[in-house]
Structures are given as C-alpha cells and as structure tokens.
Specification:
about 290 residues; single chain; binds zinc ion; Aminopeptidase; globular; about 15% strand; alpha/beta; two-stranded antiparallel ribbon
Amino acid sequence: MPGRCRVGYWGTCHAASGSPASSRARCCSPAARERGRRRIRPPARWGARRRAPRRRPPRCPPRPRRRPPVEEPLTGFVVAVDPGHNGGNAAHPAEVTAPVPDGRGGIKACNTTGTASATDYPEHAFNWEVAAAVRERLEDLGAEVVLSREDDEGVGPCVDERGQFAGDAGADVLVSIHANGTEDTSAAGFHMIVVEDSPHAGVAEPSRTLAEDMVEAFGAADLAPNPAYGDDGIVARTDIAGLNHAKVPAVLVECGEMRNPDEAALMESAAGRERYAAAIVAGVQEFLED
Ligand SMILES: [Zn+2]
C-alpha cells in the first residue's frame, strides 16, 4: 500500500510520516510537484491584501435650481374646438333631425351629415382630423382645449350644445371647423361665419375680430377667400344655431370647398390638413394675444 503524499505550500512535497521511502520518491517526482502547485492555493493571508473599498460619504442630492415656471404663449387660455357633424350622423336620421332650440326662439334640426368630396372623403372626417391637429398645436402653445365631441364615430351633439359647451367650459373662444359643399365645382376658397346680432351681449364684436384674425392667418398660409362671400371672406348670419348659442367669441371656419377638386385634394392630404390647422391656430393665437 503506497504511502500518502503531502504537498506543502509552493508545491514542496513529502511523504506522510510513516510512509515508506518509495512513497517519498513518488511524491517528489516533477509530475507530483506540478499537481501540488495546481492544487494548492496560498491562503489569503499570503496573498496581496485586498483593501476594503473606501466608503464614500453619501452625496447630498444637488439643490434644485430655482427657475421660473415656463410660460407658453397661450398658458391660461381655454379654447373650445367644435369639429362639425359626426361620423355616426348618417346612420341615425331620427336623432339627427330631431328639433332643438336654434338660440333665437325657433327650432332647428339637431345636426346634419355634412358634405363630402367627389371621392367620398366625408366632411366630418376632415373636420375631426383638422380639429385633432388644432388641439395638438394649441396644447403645445400652452392652451387648454375642450372639444365638442370625443371621436368621429358618434352621433351629434346637437347644434345648441355645440354652442353652449364653450361657455360651460369657461372657454375664451370657440372655433367651429367645417368645409363647404357648394355644388359648383369651380367654387373655391375659405370663408368665415360669425353671428349677426348675437342674443348674448359682448359676443358679436369680438367674434368679428376673431374672424378677421382668422382671415389674416389663412391669407398668411397662402389660402384664398371664396369671393362669393364678400371681399373679406366673412359673412354674418342669424341662422347658425351653434353661433347663436355661443356666449363667448365664436367663428365658424369653412376651410374651403370640398367639391372643388384642387381643394379636395388638399383636404385629403395630411399636409393639407396641417396647413389648415396651423392657420386656424395662428388666427386663435393672434386673437387671444391681442
Ligand atoms: Zn359643415
């Protein structure tokens, strides 16, 4: 029975005490030494002493710099946006034709379906998409935006509500977004509708100013007025129930003519809708900042 080998630190080896001499010779062979070197690790106290990581004192969080709150140009203003008509109106004729107060003691149909382009791009979709872009731009400028409807799949609201919601929300201004549907396809250009002799005090005059700011902004966006609606593209009417019900300055923007192929192409493009939206926002901003 061979004696047991004991391998010391550094690979030195020797036979365990009491082993025969032959065992010692085997233990001290080069192969056994190498095995010993590989197996034996010097204890930690022999190695380089590892320093415990120095503990840094906890850092104080940096003091917040005192900066004045960033004020956007329209911070504090509330803008009511009314995208005309709704996607579900056509399928719900009874609800849409139900009579509602017209704001002057008479009645009017709750709502209508709106017009469409020759390629069947519906006005309600155009109005909705422009309104969404208007909302985004106004919110970027710091304004709070309230919409008359939540999506483009519903029915209504009725025209009386479309005027009242702006005052109820404490809005500074109401913009109703539409596109016109003159049958003559050569008709082109925008026009703005304001209330004639509003039932509510203090509304007609600033509404006219709002429409003038809107005309200027449309002009700056290279959009031309429809000459059928006067030199300045503004018409005052008593039969628009939404405007009759508005207790805040209000304008109904007819962005253009959907039956005109050139204007329909503009309305059907995302870039075109952004152009209308930018013009509407510029008009609102001009009015509110003045
Ligand atoms: Zn319309």
